[in-house]
User: Which sequence fits this backbone?
């Protein structure tokens, strides 16, 4: 069941002409289905096109080979694997990344700790604000 707060939050704040993520194509990688649906819906409401969501690293890597993206919203750990190879590719291409994770900050390798991170469970307004500041038009 989708959280209707997402619809109210974004519908009240953004209309078609002022969607702050319009033109963005964001890769979404999250293995928790309900969380992935929430992120996908909110990012879409903000005007971005969602590539995914993907629950497996291999699928997300394949998508990065085929699809053009402008950034990513990533869980760090997926079923014993990490999204860090995706982060390396995205950073090498100059694209921003937002971690949405339930893990402790200390569990993130030092060289990735400076990246923006949102802890699960997250507040929809906080995700919207972070997404706007990270992926939005200047």
Assistant:
């Amino acid at each position: 069941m989708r959280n209707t707060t997402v619809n109210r939050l974004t519908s009240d704040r953004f209309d078609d002409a002022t969607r702050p993520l319009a033109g963005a194509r964001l890769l979404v990688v999250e293995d928790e289905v309900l969380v992935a649906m929430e992120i996908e819906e909110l990012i879409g409401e903000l005007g971005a096109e969602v590539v995914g969501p993907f629950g497996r690293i291999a699928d997300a890597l394949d998508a990065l080979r085929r699809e053009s993206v402008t950034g990513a919203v990533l869980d760090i750990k997926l079923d014993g694997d990490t999204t860090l190879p995706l982060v390396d590719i995205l950073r090498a291409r100059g694209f921003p990344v937002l971690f949405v994770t339930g893990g402790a900050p200390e569990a993130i390798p030092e060289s990735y700790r400076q990246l923006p991170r949102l802890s699960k469970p997250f507040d929809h307004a906080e995700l919207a604000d972070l997404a706007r500041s990270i992926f939005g038009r200047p």
Remarks:
- DSSP finds five helices and seven strands in the chain.
- The mean pLDDT is 87.
